[in-house]
Amino acid sequence: MKMKTNKFLFLALLFVTVLNACKKDNDEVIAPAPKITGLEVGSNNNKTAYPGNDLHIEATIEAEGNIADVKLEINPVSATGWKLSTTYTDGFKGLKNAEFHKHIDVPATAAVGDYKVVLTVTDQAGKITKIESDLKVVVDPTLPSVANLEVEYEGNDEIHLDATVNAPSKIAKVVVEVHGGTYNKEFEFTDAAMVGQTTYKFHKHVHITGAPNGHYHIHVKVIDQAGKSIEVEDHFDKK
């Protein structure tokens, strides 16, 4: 009788264990693949890059399974041309939501022509999502330019900026954007001595009052009187 009771208890325990395991499997939520939205390639999403200048690329990433890495690839449509392959983990790994915002240096030697941009997000479960965009590399001698950009944080919420800005079609304005963490602010400059010039020594002290200590990106955008623009990026640490 005792053996039958023990056997019954063993079977009952086995049944409960299996039932709980099945319930756990059923309750387990499988995260969907990552999402990539709002892809922008080039200034105002014009899908154009210029040799020797920055290329703006931005997108919004959502990954319920948490981001493992983000990979950016740029390849020529033809057999030869500029190629780029960079994988990012810093600032992305482990996050469910992230803003991908990079300014890529386009080599001065980059061949003109058609390219493909591929942004790939892999989550920590190994699920992969890709998004593509066309890109054209062109040479435009009338485009504004920024040379010898120097950025230095001088303390007391003040950034020192120094650069030479050029615009064959004459300068209309310069916009400086500072962002990092939750801080984001734009500063617009239309100095009378600068507007209408083709070359100008841009020297400013920008105050970022209220910005917490941390790592920041700074963008300098030159807009000419024909509406064309170019944007360059640098970094600094506020301590």
Automatic annotation (TrEMBL):
Q: Metal-binding: is it a keyword of this entry?
A: no
Keywords assigned: Signal
**Which range is the signal sequence, renumbered to this chain?**
1-23
Which Gene3D superfamilies would you find in this protein's record? Immunoglobulins (2.60.40.10)
- UniProt superkingdom: Bacteria
Q: Record's Pfam families? A: DUF4625 (PF15418)
Q: What is this protein called?
A: DUF4625 domain-containing protein
Source organism per entry reads Pedobacter chitinilyticus
